[in-house]
Amino acid sequence: MLHVVPYQPLRLITQNSLTSMCFKLMLSRPVAFAQIWKSWFSSHSLVGNKNIILMGPPGAGKTTVGRIVGQKLDCPVIDIDDDVLETTWNMSVSEKLQDVGNEQFLEEEGKALLKFSTSGSVISLTGSNPMHSAGMQHMKKNGIVVYLDVPTTVVMSRLKSMKVDRIVGQSPGISLKDILQFRKQFYKRWYDIRVLCGGDIAAEVVAEKVLDAVKRYQNSELETFISTRSSRSGRSMEQDSCKYFSDVVTEGLAPDGGLFVPERGLPEFTAGEWQSLIEATYIERAQVILERCVHPADIPASKLAEIIGTAYGENFTCSKIAPVRHLAGNQFLLELFHGPTASFKDFALQMVPHIFAYCIPRSCNYLVLVATSGDTGSAVLDGFSRLHDTDKQRIAVMNFFPEDGVSPIQKSQMIGCQKENAWSVGVKSDFDFCQTAIKQIFTNSDYTGFLTVEYGTALAAANSINWARLLPQIVYHASAYLDLVHQDIIPFGSPVDVCIPTGNFGNILAALYAKMMGIPIRKCICASNENNVLTDFVRTGVYDLRGRKLIPTFSPAVDILKSSNLERYLHLIANEDGQLVTQLYNQLENQGHFQLQKDLLEKLQQDLVAGWCSEEDCLAAIHSVYSTTGYILDTHTAVAKVVADRLQDRTCPIIISSTAHYSKCAPAILRALRIAEIKQNPLSQLHLLSSYSPLPPVHWGLLETLKKKGNEDHQVCAADMGMLMSHIETLIQNHFM
């Protein structure tokens, strides 16, 4: 085994003089000495016996950054090129490459790694080390691998300035860019932590980012969650019951009835970090953003990559996943309907089931409950039905929807998506009843305890009350902005507005979170249909359900009066005042209304503006847009289009969220386009739309689901809590017992 004595930078202060200085400082300035000692101890405990292993392409700055990090930590610094390979081979790396060729060089390089051992050091790998599997496995046993992620264009520019025109693995006919892209798969395989290094970022800054990232990696206890209704004094008394990402994914709703939010907020990206993602694919952007929102102790980067790849790989028909399309003037459409069930819900619900399956304990079965106003149901059922067979045996899902409150196509789709571990139940009421009932079930400790003891089954939530549902939505709002920059519509830093059809407030909340994380969103426009409680609230600060009846509309996914995720936003603008949030929602529950204080309303109106759209205007917008552009809006997007036309000031681009494929709303589309007499059978409606060749094709996944036989079979339940609980117990007995 080769033990390398690494080069260490000269120190300006000798050990004896340093001891003398520390003693004098301790006597004269004890507070300052304590701070310095704490910093020194923190730095040294950061490494311990582990190595910090810097990995990345040639030109990423690994050697320079490694030396700076080593100086800051006062630990050995090892450069694999200089201190291991050239010492072992007694020749330069370039000479060795020329001597043995590409393939043999990688093998020789890997053998040298296998013979190398050290601890408590900062190690700078070569750009090609990660291509040798056995060597990297050996290195990872005692190290934290930090990937210096530098955009390919930046790397190529640096290599050009260094007059490097050939690297390991490159051969005639293969460009430098191609080999750099090829190597990325190996970097992504091995890293524990990613550090974004875009543009002309200084090595000192990268070194600080490395240290911060390692500290985060080793301190998962810093990323805890709290309830929107918890008091500050209560939090300090509950340190022994901290909630982490895995906990909130599993539990869904907080025990006090509130919603979980990260105690220290969401991570902020610098402008340079966002800009480094401009050239990235959607999946790459999702990976980077979610790594910063989910601690690796909950889901390691490699597992997260696997989940994201599974969610957005073959299940989406558009390679761009969430493409941005120019509509007209300064308006752009963010198309969120290319997933298997044709709505924006797929972005979260192709991913959340796999996150859930990874996070839950193996010792218990789980029944996931969900309430839907239309699109969530089929997305949840489809997502959980794609789990591995072993996971489907211990995870089932039950979807409650208003029996007469969704479109015929949505109902047929939900019923058609039923699988061996996924069922739908129609409830003779509206969405608000379904959602409230689920919340009451979760907070009924006697009932949930009974299910656990009697059946070994715990309950979980898949509605947007579950924190994990929101994170994938942040990604597509950020990605849409980056796409506009990539298309040269705007330079990075220029603002955009977003307009989102809004019911439960989850989608628009995700846009607000993207803004907090550094995406230059100016205003979020909240678009309602005739159930316009949110419009009134944003304009007046009064949330008033008294005398309101839910109105069935052509846009059923936003036929909602009680917007659950609004609670998270109010908690945010109220500076995490859980007592105030509790007071507001108790008043809403008991009296049917609440009113914001003036200062909170002013904060809210800095972020939000709101408007609503009538049924007539919704259909007229569909007809007008098709007549002028040939594009068909679904009814929810049409609501947003109408509101955007009224409220935008045209001083910046506006991104309208297109939340569903038009074929999900076939009767309304047929009526808006004045095509023919509307037939009642959902499949006939889709065939009728398909028969008109000028129209874009209907959604493939929707058509296939509706073709399935027996999709009219489902259970129907009265609007009674006892009946809902009975259905839950029956499902548990049938599936798990």
TrEMBL record:
A GO CC term?
cytoplasm
Q: In which pathway does it act?
A: Amino-acid biosynthesis
Q: Which cofactor does it need?
A: pyridoxal 5'-phosphate
Q: What name does UniProt use for this protein? A: THNS1 protein
Any Pfam family the entry gives: SKI
Q: Molecular function (GO) terms listed?
A: pyridoxal phosphate binding
State whether keyword Nucleus applies: no
What NCBIfam families does the entry give? thrC (TIGR00260)
As stated in the Swiss-Prot or TrEMBL entry, residues carrying the post-translational modification N6-(pyridoxal phosphate)lysine are K345
Is Amino-acid biosynthesis one of the keywords?
A: yes
The cross-references to SUPFAM superfamilies, in alphabetical order and at most eight, read: P-loop containing nucleoside triphosphate hydrolases, Tryptophan synthase beta subunit-like PLP-dependent enzymes
Location of the Threonine synthase N-terminal domain = 240-312
Keywords (A to Z) from UniProt: Amino-acid biosynthesis, Pyridoxal phosphate
Family label: Belongs to the threonine synthase family.
Biological-process GO terms, alphabetical: amino acid biosynthetic process
Which HAMAP family does this one have? Shikimate_kinase (MF_00109)
